[in-house]
Amino acid sequence: MNTVAALDEPTGRGGWRVSRGLLTVLSACVALFVASAIFASSSVTKGPLLGMLPYASVLAIVSLGQTLVIQQGGIDLSVPGSVSAVVVICTHEAQNQDSRLWWVVLLALGVSIAAGVLNGVLIGRLGLNAIVATLGTSSLMYTVVFGVSGGIPRSTTPLLAKIASGLTLGIPRSVFFAVGATVLTTVVVKRTAPGRRFEATGANPAAAVTAGLHVYRYRIGAYVWAQLHYWLGGVLLAGILSQPTAFQGNAYLLPSVAAVVLGGTSLLGGRGNLVATALAALFLEQLGQFVLALGVTFAIRTLVEAAALVVGVALYTVDWRAVRARLFPPQQTSSI
Amino acid sequence: MTLTDTHDHLPDEDASPPSRLRMAGISKHFLGVRALVDVSLDVRPGEVHALLGENGAGKSTLMNIASGALLPDAGELWFDGQPVDALTPAAAAELGIATVHQHPAVLPDMTVLENVLVSVPRSSLRSARGRRAAVQAMLDDVGCTAHLEDRVDSLSVAKKHLLELAKALVVRPRLLILDEPTAPLGHESVLLLFERIRRAVQSGASVVYITHRLAEVREIAQRVTVLRDGKFRGEHLVGEVTDDELLALIVGRQLDSTFPPKRAARPEAPLALQVEALSGPGFTDVSFAAEAGEIVGVAGIVGNGQTELLRALTGLAPFTGAVSIGGRAFGPRQLRAHSAYMPADRHADALMMTLGVRENASVTALSHVTDGLFVNRRREIETVRREAQRLAVKTPSLETPVSSLSGGNQQKVVMARALLSRPTVLLADEPTQGVDVGARSEIYKILREVSDSGVPVVVASSDAKELEGLCDRVVVLSRGHKVAELSGEEVSEDAIVGAAIRADARRAADAGRKRSSRLGRFVRGDYAPVAVLAAVILALGAYVNARNHRYLQPYNLNSLMLLAAALGFIAMGQTICLLLGGIDLSVGPLSGVLVVIASFFMTKQDSGARIVLGVVLMVLWAVLIGMLNGSLIRFLRFTPVAATLATFIALQGIAFVFRKVSGGYIARPITNVITHKIGRFPAAFLILVALTVLMELALRRTRWGLALRAVGSQEDAARKVGIRVTRTVLAGYVAASLFVVLGAVMLLAQIGVGDPAQGEGYTLASVTAVVLGGTSLLGGRGTFVGTLLGAVLSVQVLNATTFLELSQTWVYFFQGALVVAAALIYSQVRGRLGRRV
């Protein structure tokens, strides 16, 4: 070992080194797209890709929000209610008029922030369990869904459809939103002082207290910030779908948790692999396309997802060195 | 155990009777640190043998070996003259060795009675008036005023200790080991304790009594062995040795590390830190004043208020009294903002173990290295590196996770963080604990530099030698009171240890002397939610019936009960997982898959044998899934959420593997059996109620139920009292899946067809029902009865909205509001009232 005096790091690139989670997910993505090209080339042609990317973008954005909550040692089960509420507000309240669009998007934003504050106060201030509190909030957001729509689907305004599902430079616009959200969140968490304290608080709340930080602020911040992501995802989803249902958010809860876990962010909190989470969302969606193109059923696709999740978690939780040592004991000890 | 020179140490054949416990040549190393070197101890039958020595002298380690918790590297042990090899805790209990540890191994979420039942063998609890009376008698015997139904969590530290003492005495041990038993006790309890010790000795037991206090040695012990620095220093009869002779044996350790020179005497130095009449939780009326450049030491036997005093000075605990630094008054708020604190437990309280050196060191200094919105990485690295070089932190790089550094370097990282925050005052609790010799000297040097720069430094340490070398002024605490203040030339190990071990300050009598009230116990108990829920259910029913008289008609009640039975069975399974401190997200899709499986065996064409086969397959499948969940959690170390989420997704897929589209109509006779009525009620609902009662009894009365809640309450303590944790968890998840089978049977009648897309909703619905029922998601406390009522209420709310002609909007509103309100009420009752006894 060196003292720090001996090593001379010339540049400031220390914090940008590639994390194990990112490396894992990146190689999984590359492997998946190579496999797609070889075994199911139809899944990597223009049509399926353009169809898949908008959904991958929404999942990526929602999963980023879930990552922030999980970084603080929580979990957010209010995704279904929150995303559904935003979708419904953006479709129903707009009444098919582009002129109302900005107003309804802001209204949805207000509702989302209210949900985040509710979650944050219940969990960060009043000490409720995250599962219980966010479960309740999800139901309350469904109250909004049915209050607004009565459960009847309606399509969005032409303008939002154009913004969300149009192409720029031949790429679905939602991809730009997803990349933008990933970059913004990553920069805020990794580059600003509050973001860095946020990460440290999640890694060890007790230590954050002795370092003079106020833990509840970062917990509340996590839930509000997560809701901003659900809001963005919901707005895009409203524009992407031609006939959204009242339960559009339900499909995003478990995949968002799966994406976080695959991205290598620990469910116990701490450092967040935000870029890896976004890539994991892409991985999950493309995996769906791949097995679909292979002609297998929904059943196989789901099983493959579950297997990917188990392998993904086991990569982090199992002490592989110990397993190797047990399976292939070193020569000296095996002779005893 | 390695045997050394066997025959030389055999007990003397002439001496009769043989020693109760004889230890010879005991050595023990921890990670290269010598904790014990060639130590011997000889405890005669029927004597109280005091074991005396400074903090870290090796007393507790020696007794951990005697009680089987640790294996020595070398040495021999005899019990009643018989050589003992490889002692385990179970074997020690068998021999009649009982230990009361310094930190009680109790299960916080369980009652006093249950804590006793789960760890004391039945044979020790025989009484003519039943086990309850036996337990009550054993508590009365040590003067523990706790009620049998009090939750241990709500007891004072003293009562927890008395409970542990009672558990140790009731087994009538042949050797009783007491590790600083009087530390948390009030005066009367101490007198009673001594009385019980004398009585135990009269009935033939021997006692090893670990202590720091000479007064106690004189009062209770006949013989004393002194350890210093892991070595045997001498054995004497208490009557034949003076206090000064004992003190000389205790102190005088050689220190390898060197100290920086102390502050040069300055006649008119200004006061840097003034503490006046400071009182708070754990310390009372502490005053001292330090001149600029003085390092203040806080000394005392571990756990006498040192840590609490430091936490108050850093603004983390409330206090009364005044603190001023450099002439300015500081309240808790200002202290929190301007002090830097180095806690004693680095891993738990100071370091973000998964983060790197840079991130740990700079977390308090980020505002000093920010340009506009962003942290300037170059400046951050430069700042951290400069500090790390100054403190000579040895690390491969600044990005290395702190978990991979040595103890000394970890402590330097904590120190770097403290200094980078540019503190007004620096408070260090045990700054050199677990730090190697070289790093120690460096830490002393830095503390001196900080002090010289004008920042007041306060160091709490259990190592008097360290304080002698480092500090200009030392405050000695005993039981939270200042018993001595030494400065300048007076600061010496002799003076510090003398003041600490001669102090005879007793704690005030237990504050919580009055017993808990019946109402208080009920409100804090597991059954309060049950009463609340029952009231809500009746009130809601009455209200709906007043608005719509068809509500109470048999048809509606029947369908309500059938729906409640389906949810109820599944929620019972979920309750088991939550009691274990886990969760099972897979119950919903599991119920769906089970229905799909049944749909292949229970159609019109199927014979009776095929139907039985179907049931068997459902059960086997459920057991498999339960084993899978439990194994992922215990063997692959998945969190319960991750494990059961994976199972959830897989089961979704499997349902579609079995059936691509829905099909397989369940035969009418089968659904008729499922919905069969006994009198006015569906049989299934009656079975649910009966099972609930049985499970509730099992949870309270059987070893299985106690084990379940013990594991959920505190895994480590459960292991210590001999519960097999892994087996309990696996069995719990299997049992949960089996309850889902019963739920799936109900769904057979409700869905009537094998539909692969059904069932998922039951995951969150079951969690909702359990939470409404008052079971804690943290594990250890809850009831099956509450879950049953939670399921009934969930179904009832849904049903009521149709009768009140409310829209679906209200269904969701009530569901959300109910869960949040229930969780808030239960947690407030437990949190606020629960701790204030």
Unreliable runs of chain B = 1-13, 509-513, 832-837
Oligomer: heterodimer
Residue fraction in strands of chain B: 15-25%
Tally the structural domains of chain B: 3
Q: Given the C-alpha coordinates, what overall shape of chain B results?
A: globular
What CATH architecture of the largest domain in chain B would you give? Orthogonal Bundle
Average pLDDT of chain B, to the nearest integer?
A: 85
Question: What does the model show?
Answer:
- The complex is a heterodimer of chains A (336) and B (837).
- Chain A is mainly α and 336 residues long.
- Chain A has one domain.
- In chain A, 71% of the residues lie in helices and 1% in strands.
- Chain A contains 15 helices and 2 strands.
- Chain A has a two-stranded antiparallel ribbon with strand order 1-2.
- In chain A, a hairpin with a 2-residue loop joins strand 1 (167-168) and strand 2.
- The longest helix of chain A has 26 residues, at 46-71.
- Chain B has 31 helices and 26 strands.
- In chain B, the strands form 7 sheets. In chain B, strands 6-7-8-3-9-10 form a 6-stranded mixed sheet, with helices on both faces. A 6-stranded mixed sheet of chain B has the order 16-19-20-13-21-22, with helices on both faces. In chain B, strands 2-1-4-5 form a 4-stranded antiparallel sheet, with helices on one face.
- Mean pLDDT of chain B is 85; it is low at 1-13, 509-513 and 832-837.
